[in-house]
Amino acid sequence: MKVKLFEDLGFKRQKCEKCGKYFWSIEEKDICDDCDKYSFIGKKVTKKSFDYDEMVKEFIKFFEEHGHRHIKRAPVVARRWRDDILLTIASIAVFQPWVTKGLIKPKANPLVIAQPCIRLNDIDNVGRTGRHLTCFTMGGHHAFNTPENYIYWQDETVELCYKFFKRLGIDEKKIIFVESWWEGGGNAGPCFEVLTHGVELATLVFMQYEKIENDYKEIPLKIVDTGYGIERFVWISQGKETIYDAIFGNIVEKLKKEVGVEEIERGILKNITELSGIMDISDAKDLRELRKKVAEKVGMDVEELTRLLEPYENIYAIADHTRALAFMLGDGIVPSNVQEGYLVRMLIRKTLRHMDKLNLSLPITEIVRMQLNSLKSLYPELLEMEDYIMDVLQIEERRYRETLKRGEGIVRRLLKKKDISLDDLIELYDSHGLPVEIAKEILNKYGKDIDIPDNFYTLIAERHEHKKIEKKKEKLPEVDVQETELLFYKYPNDKEFEAEILKIVDNYVILDRTLFYPEGGGQKADKGKIIKGDKEYEVIDVKKENNIVYHKLKSVEGLKEGDKVKGVIDFERRLTLMRHHTATHIVNAACQRVLGKHVYQAGSDVDVDKARLDITHYKRISKEELKEIEKLANEIVLGNYKVESVFMDRNEAEEKFGFRIYQGGVVPGDVLRIVMIKNDELIDVQACGGTHCQNTGEVGMIKIIKTERIQDGVERLIYVSGLRALEYANTLEDILDKSSKILRCSYEDLPKSLEKIFEENKELNKKLEEMREKLAELKKYELLDKFEKIGDYEVLIECVDAEPKDLLSLADNLAIGNRIVILTNNKGFILCKRGEKVDVSMNELIKAIAKGGGKEHLAQEDVREN
């Protein structure tokens, strides 16, 4: 790649003797910096030392001065706006796929962003190599070039990077540009990796292809995609032995003091970091090799080196992981067993395991609180979530401790079935959250051993990061017609309309315009009829695909393309759906206010008889909270707030309302329909395509029927509104009326009467049990004379008119010494019991009599089942 700056400043293109890559530098070099060791440790390579906050601000300021508009960061959970990845792994991920595919315009062009990212692909290396992080900030300056609007390309990108390095005071002779290739998120292009003193600080990607399987297709946009490692810039400005000491210095020192670790010679840490910089650390073998090389270099036994290093590695990992948790929980991720919720739980448990290894008494909540305080000037929104974060961490730690207590029983039960493999250990962690190190200790206790790869948690993370939830969707026939005019948005209260049939495929009729709402956004489709002349056709379902609405009819006989028809919707059904859908927005808003900002819609279903809303929440909703949610929801109804819908540019909507508008999931397109509930204040705002009331007063009373936990981290609320709420209340009243008549008391006295009956019943059962015992005692004496001598044993075979429970009690009284008791009743129940001096198996005996089974001393069978 030819670049004007290289020609102007005398950069030479050279080939690395070690890796074979081409690179550009002013100095003559045999190898590229990517193959060289770090040479900045202990040196000053920038004009001043920067902390994290200062470097973020310096980066943004520089690019603002060079014509870039700063845009706010996105959440670290990418599933807010896309469905192909869970976490935000790069600054360009914020613009995929909508901007990069040219579907919408960028919020600014060119722009600069400092985007916190989470990557778990190197999680097992964190703390061990001196340089790996799970949580890092990618500074990006991006330009989106189109044929009509050229911003800048390679020359300007390289020049901006060079100037930023120079602004920090980095020696121009030490700046290296390595030619490479980049792929990610379905896009690809050539790139420069920019290094100094052996460390890569930035990647300059010239994105111009879409990767489809193994082929590359040129895209209409030419995108400048840059990634600057903010933490690495901080590191080289300070010259510390590890990146953790540079970024988390105060936390590292606090943890060291709490643990009382043995001080290690800083040269050892320097050697680890330098050597790891030129090694591709990807598995256990690489880490062992790194340790071995460091031990040889410092003249120390590997085991002794490991003993000294492990406390530092745990401290460094804790410092990194707790910052990642501050962002993940602060952006509202709720721990669960699926998707990003699983990943945050894994990170919490891994952090707790590191803390246990250190016997650290400092709670995880305090360490995360330190992280929040260190981030508050740049990310004040995280501090707003502090109560939620602290509550979640306490609950998750309690669950983790409970898992450890159950661990031995879990492993022991599995061992009874088979030998445990690595897949079993992964499943133990997936299903029970049992840390692999604990599982190994338990296995060792039972004389079993298994090799655990050092990248175990990386394997776990990859398994869940790439797991997709497949949504089944009915395949509609393809048609080549104009898009349907959606009348239900323009005239939501109209009941009938006239239209022309454009296409008939199978039992589907496609009209040029329609009032029928197609199923979507959790709302069921409208029903009704299409009329031609004096013949009516029932509409049983409505779907939409590619902005074309498909009306499914019971029969299409007599209809043809070009016919003029009238459509009539079942408006009572529509009205109920509108009320329930608006109620869903209201209940969601109430949940967020009562439970916290972490609440996010995980699903909904708007039907005629009732509606449901699934929300992310980390514990069961209490009765008090449920009452408060219901009360607030009805206050919103009584407030008669306006329900407005407007079509907005996607960027404008995100800029104004944030990513919370995507409550119902990912919404495609550059124009969004935004539904707002507001008066003097904004109660709720969502990107939503459903039908709604014009004000909250039209919803009528909202009554929450029940809540249930449908999966870990997701609570379901089921509710009714309007006339359905009245019907539900009437049903409850009927039940109360019938109950009060049976008990001959008023509604108010029902609890007291039921309690009295319960207590009386308990007393009667107690007396009945006493009578049974006395009857069994009497029966025992009656049966004592009926034992017969058979061989060495006394045997009783008798049919007794009693329940199985009474037969068992009777057998307990009779089966002593060398006696065998076989009892049956007239309902087909049989049991065999032996005394303590009998060595005949009752299990085998009952198998001979019937098909039952049991234990050696007692067996029983209900022959009515055979």
TrEMBL record:
Its EC number is 6.1.1.7. Residues 754-784 form a coiled coil. One of its GO terms (molecular function) is tRNA binding. One of its GO terms (biological process) is alanyl-tRNA aminoacylation. Residues 50-731 form the Alanyl-transfer RNA synthetases family profile domain. Keywords: Aminoacyl-tRNA synthetase, ATP-binding, Coiled coil, Cytoplasm, Ligase, Metal-binding, Nucleotide-binding, Protein biosynthesis, RNA-binding, tRNA-binding, Zinc. InterPro entries: aa-tRNA-synth_II/BPL/LPL (IPR045864), Ala-tRNA-lgiase_IIc (IPR002318), Ala-tRNA-ligase_IIc_anticod-bd (IPR018162), Ala-tRNA-synth_IIc_core (IPR018165), Ala-tRNA-synth_IIc_N (IPR018164), Ala-tRNA_lgiase_arc (IPR022429), Ala-tRNA_ligase (IPR050058), Thr/Ala-tRNA-synth_IIc_edit (IPR018163). It is an enzyme of class 6 (ligase). It catalyses: tRNA(Ala) + L-alanine + ATP = L-alanyl-tRNA(Ala) + AMP + diphosphate. SMART domains: tRNA_SAD. Zn(2+) binds at H581, H585, C688, H692. One of its GO terms (cellular component) is cytoplasm. SUPFAM superfamilies: Class II aaRS and biotin synthetases (SSF55681), Putative anticodon-binding domain of alanyl-tRNA synthetase (AlaRS) (SSF101353), ThrRS/AlaRS common domain (SSF55186), Translation proteins (SSF50447). PROSITE patterns: AA_TRNA_LIGASE_II_ALA (PS50860). It is found in: Cytoplasm. Binds 1 zinc ion per subunit. Its cofactor is Zn(2+). Catalyzes the attachment of alanine to tRNA(Ala) in a two-step reaction: alanine is first activated by ATP to form Ala-AMP and then transferred to the acceptor end of tRNA(Ala). Also edits incorrectly charged Ser-tRNA(Ala) and Gly-tRNA(Ala) via its editing domain. Belongs to the class-II aminoacyl-tRNA synthetase family. Consists of three domains; the N-terminal catalytic domain, the editing domain and the C-terminal C-Ala domain. The editing domain removes incorrectly charged amino acids, while the C-Ala domain, along with tRNA(Ala), serves as a bridge to cooperatively bring together the editing and aminoacylation centers thus stimulating deacylation of misacylated tRNAs. This is Alanine--tRNA ligase. The gene is alaS.
